[in-house]
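Case study.
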Amino acid sequence: MDTDLSSQDRKDLDKFIKFFALKTVQVIVQARLGEKICTRSSSSPTGSDWFNLAIKDIPEVTHEAKKALAGQLPAVGRSMCVEISLKTSEGDSMELEIWCLEMNEKCDKEIKVSYTVYNRLSLLLKSLLAITRVTPAYRLSRKQGHEYVILYRIYFGEVQLSGLGEGFQTVRVGTVGTPVGTITLSCAYRINLAFMSTRAGEDNGAVYPSVEDSQEVCTTSFSTSPPSQLSSSRLSYQPAALGVGSADMGYPVLFAGGLNAAHPHQLIGPGKEGGVPPVPNQPAHGTQADQERMCTPLDGVHYSAATPSSSEDTETVSNSSEGKCGSPHDLLETIFIRKVGAFVNKPINQVTMANLDIPFAMFAPKNVELEDNDPMVNPPESPETESPLQGSLHSEGSSGSSTGNTHDDFVMIDFKPAFSKDDILPMDLGTFYREFQNPPQLSSLSIDIGAQSMAEDLDSLPEKLAVHEKNVKEFDAFVETLQ
Amino acid sequence: MVGPGRSRCCGPSGAAPAMNCRAEVLEVSVEGRQVEEAMLAVLHTILLHRSTGKFHYKKEGTYSIGTVGTQDVDCDFIDFAYVRVSSEELDRALRKAVGEFKDALRGSGSDGMGQISLEFYQKKKSRWPFSDECIPWELWTIKVNVVNLANEQERQICREKVGEKLCEKIINIVEVMNRHEYLPKMPTQSEVDNVFDTSLKDVQPYLYKISYQITDSLGTSVTTTMRRLIKDTLAL
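After joint prediction, the assembly is written out as follows.
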């Protein structure tokens, strides 16, 4: 009966429950950020650390929790739930856990609110700290980044466990009896993560979620990735359009396979080009805003696609490009010269190695190309193996035999990554990123020269050893100067 | 590997069993290099629940409590991470105890089996000439079986398996902690040293002691070592 509880105790209890709920959300979300958490102990009480525990308050999380609670407290039939889900770069998502803060009707009238309940809530938070590290989602969250991110969602009301799949398990973190009911904190977590493995092997012709669907998810879910990670993972959702990594070409190819195929210097890995679909309607993931954001950093080169599905994209792209490019050639020159050292420029407009029929073609020596004539003057040959996209992308049906012809078909726009300054070309973030995405091949690692020099080195070893032995005294003197 | 067992007869050997002492037993099988991390994970998890902030008594007999910080620890030899109290002194004390246990396990006469015990106790002042009595109120025993593995593949599997088992142990520990069974009453200022270890500068665990036993191949206890690690390790 509430009448047994003094009004002061009632007020205190409500306050404790409210802040307990807020701290619970903080602990759960922070445990899914993917980072190690560390807070300091303080012997002097600061007065602001609820439950005598140093738990930082992330303002956004507190805001969302308060919004979900909307001035109410967990009560019978009204639970506060934190849903943790995983979202892949392809836009698929999967619920991993539901943390529930519930209240049942079992009351403990004898318990002292300001002392016992408070201390037990503190103990329960410690238990939550421990348990959040032992469910499977913790390890997933520590590895989030390029392939997936972890999202959280807070809601108030009835617990919804249907998204956890079959055979989910529950772990009870603990309970605290109070004069108005018993607080229970528990977690239901998915154990069937089979979704992850099947998704990776699926055909590239899979349907992608529409922008509307992903938009809905995005407005109610919040990523737990720290902003730096989020931006890098967003960057990584873009294709290896910046010229890297055949290993990564799986789903990135899907997003901009067409762009890769048409652009002569984009590397197309041996991955899944056979199944590359037409340029998709929508981006692999993200809201409309994200789509636009993700479009622009793609190496600054966009192609007017003939496929009607991407006409919207084309319009957006070509409109934005109109005011920006001078002559296509000038722009090409600006974009395509990359600085590999302070005074060294490396033309990146090279023949793709994809047309060479050797495994790991992209790791083959590029010094052959480096010694060629300036590719700006002598455009590289078109790749022998053409992606099926090339036909659709070149509206005039040309196979892009010469760079000059190719340029007539395509619209160049300036590379504008978000937040970059465009007044000082080419030293912006995007250029920097592009530069160091594709460093030149080390000459010692090249296959031909490497093999030769290895043999030579071995042969010359005895001679070198003899020379060094003669100079032993010099070496010793040198070593002594170091000491 | 067997799950937790429970017995009501407790107390370190040589001392009279205390009837109110709660006893919990956990068992783990680990590879030699995993002993330290596994023990630290369990002991730190227990002490996380059995430590408070520093008490600051005020004139009116009330007290305020300091803040306990926490930090994540990743294991190097086990696919596992745990949370511990942010206190270097406490961490050092536990590492010293676990280090000695690990060395004893490796020593001769050991078949790779032993147990480490963490006992929480209260001091009861006695009149002279009798020394203070230590009354245990909670005893955690971790039985360890060290396994030898033949190849890297087995070691990799062991990393994962031991990680999963430790997750189960943490859940077991939390379950016990949240039964809200007997805890010593909050002491007055004059009594605080009978209940809590007040020697650390940043946190205040309940008074505890760590001991271990190594079992030889015959299954009998070869060495019983009682160490007052509070005094030994924290005395500078």
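Observations recorded in class. Residues 1-17, 223-228 of chain B have pLDDT under 50 and may be disordered. Chain B touches chain A at residues 45, 48-49, 52-54, 56, 64-72, 74, 79, 81-83, 85-87, 166-167, 170-171, 173-175, 177-178, 180, 186, 201-203 (CB under 8 Å). We will return to this complex in the next lecture.
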